[in-house]
Fold this protein.
Amino acid sequence: MRTQMVPLDKRSKKEQRAYHARQRGSWYGLSPVTRTVPNRKAYDRNWLKQRDRRDDA
């Protein structure tokens, strides 16, 4: 016998949460906060200091 697929919006909230939790997956111990890309347009004082040190050498 074949089971019929129930649409996600018709499932209970508990089953919806379980489905979405399975879809999200895992970071395998990595912190997503440390995976941000710095904004290149933002003012970065440390970058300016590093550039000045490289230019002096």
In short: Helices lie at 13-24, 45-56. The radius of gyration is 24 Å. The chain has a mean pLDDT of 87.
